[in-house]
Amino acid sequence: MQTLRRKMPPFFYLWCLLLAPCLLLLEEAHAARYGGASLRSQHMALLRWKATLASPPPQMSSWLENTSPCNWTGVMCSAIRRGRRMPRVVTNLSLPNASITGNLGELNFSALPFLTYIDLSNNSLHGAIPASIGSLSSLSHLDLGFNNLKGQIPSEVGCLHQDMRSGPIPGEIGKLVNLQFLQLTNNALSGLIPKSLGNLTQLNTLRLYGNLLSGPMPLELGQLIHLQDLELGSNHISGPIPISITNLTEMRRLSLTRNQITGPIPPEVGNLAKLNHLDLSKNQITGPIPPEVGNLAKLNHLDLSKNQITGPIPPEVGNLARLNHLDLSKNQITGPIPPEVGNLARLNHLDLSKNHITGPILPELGNLARLNHLDLSKNQITGSIPLELGNLTMLNALYLHENQISGPIPGSLGNVTKLVELYLHQNQITGSIPQEIGNLVNLKHLMLDQNIISGSITEFQPALFLA
Ligand SMILES: *[C@@H]1O[C@H](CO)[C@@H](O)[C@H](O)[C@H]1NC(C)=O
Ligand SMILES: *[C@@H]1O[C@H](CO)[C@@H](O)[C@H](O)[C@H]1NC(C)=O
Ligand SMILES: *[C@@H]1O[C@H](CO)[C@@H](O)[C@H](O)[C@H]1NC(C)=O
Ligand SMILES: *[C@@H]1O[C@H](CO)[C@@H](O)[C@H](O)[C@H]1NC(C)=O
Ligand SMILES: *[C@@H]1O[C@H](CO)[C@@H](O)[C@H](O)[C@H]1NC(C)=O
Ligand SMILES: *[C@@H]1O[C@H](CO)[C@@H](O)[C@H](O)[C@H]1NC(C)=O
Ligand SMILES: *[C@@H]1O[C@H](CO)[C@@H](O)[C@H](O)[C@H]1NC(C)=O
Ligand SMILES: *[C@@H]1O[C@H](CO)[C@@H](O)[C@H](O)[C@H]1NC(C)=O
Ligand SMILES: *[C@@H]1O[C@H](CO)[C@@H](O)[C@H](O)[C@H]1NC(C)=O
Question: Where is the signal peptide (predicted)?
Answer without folding.
Answer: 1-31
